[in-house]
């Protein structure tokens, strides 16, 4: 699994998940239940991960949707 996006905005995460679901790209959202530890302040970002074989397609999908600026740098791994 490779990290696609890291963000504090739950609406953004929901939009990204909807795009990935629509494109049938498997994904995982990590750290969404960390609000219990942080006190619901939204300081801990949520991470969206996709399988390595879908990483390039997921990046293209978000770029085409105008969310390219939200992508994590592609470290090539």
Question: How would you describe the overall organization of this protein?
Answer:
This protein has 77 residues and is an alpha+beta fold. The protein has one domain: UreE, C-terminal domain (Alpha-Beta Plaits), CATH 3.30.70.790. Helices cover 35% and strands 18% of the residues. It has helices spanning 10-22, 35-38, 55-64, and strands at 2-7, 28-30, 46-50. The protein has a 3-stranded antiparallel sheet, covered by helices on one side. It is globular.
Give a quick summary of the entry.
This protein has a 3-stranded antiparallel β-sheet, covered by helices on one side. It has 3 helices and 3 strands, in the order E-H-E-H-E-H.
Number of helices: 3
> What's the rounded overall pLDDT mean?
89
CATH class: Alpha Beta
Helical proportion?
25-40%
Q: What fold name goes in the CATH topology slot?
A: Alpha-Beta Plaits
Order of helices and strands: EHEHEH
Strand content: 15-25%
Major sheet characteristics = 3 strands, antiparallel
Report low-confidence residues grouped into runs of 5 or more: none
- Strand sequence of the main sheet, in spatial order? 1-3-2
Q: What is the terminal separation in angstroms? A: 10 Å
The count of domains is 1
The CATH homologous superfamily is named UreE, C-terminal domain
**Structure class:** alpha+beta
User: Under the CATH scheme, which architecture would be assigned?
Assistant: 2-Layer Sandwich
**How large is the radius of gyration?**
12 Å
- The tally of strands reads 3
Shape: globular
């Amino acid at each position: 699994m490779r990290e696609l996006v890291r963000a504090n905005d739950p609406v953004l995460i929901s939009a990204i998940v909807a795009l990935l679901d629509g494109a049938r790209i498997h994904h995982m959202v990590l750290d969404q239940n960390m609000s219990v530890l942080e006190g619901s302040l939204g300081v801990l970002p949520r991470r969206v991960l996709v399988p390595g074989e879908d990483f390039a397609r997921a990046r293209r999908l978000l770029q085409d949707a105008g969310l390219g600026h939200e992508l994590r740098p592609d470290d090539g791994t």
